[in-house]
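hiii, so i know i said id send this last week but things got crazy w the move. better late than never?? heres the sequnce for the chain we talked about at the cafe, plus the structure i predicted for it. fair warning i was half asleep when i ran it
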Amino acid sequence: MSEAYIQLMAEHRRISILRALASPESGGRVNDSILHSIVVNDAGVPSSRDQIRTALTWLKDQGLVTLSNLSSGTFVAAITQAGLDVAQGNATVPGVQRPSPRS
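okay and structure toks below
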């Protein structure tokens, strides 16, 4: 795979995570297992569980989410206001795909 393809997939994975966290159903907090299912099944972005955790760490480093590590080894992500702004298309961050309008 080309570097451009890998970067494109990472950007789509990141916006898919932010949009999942920004959805009213999530309450702003979702664990990494559920995020994996949403990104793969609902957003159609092929992703391993490790790729989801890597994306979550990247999003945390950008201040777009916070992460809690449960004793079971599960990560729980919570969206920040900055992450919500990106998910809604009100702000952009290099490395995160700009969201397309939802129908």
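btw The chain has one domain: 3-87. thought thatd interest u
miss u guys!!
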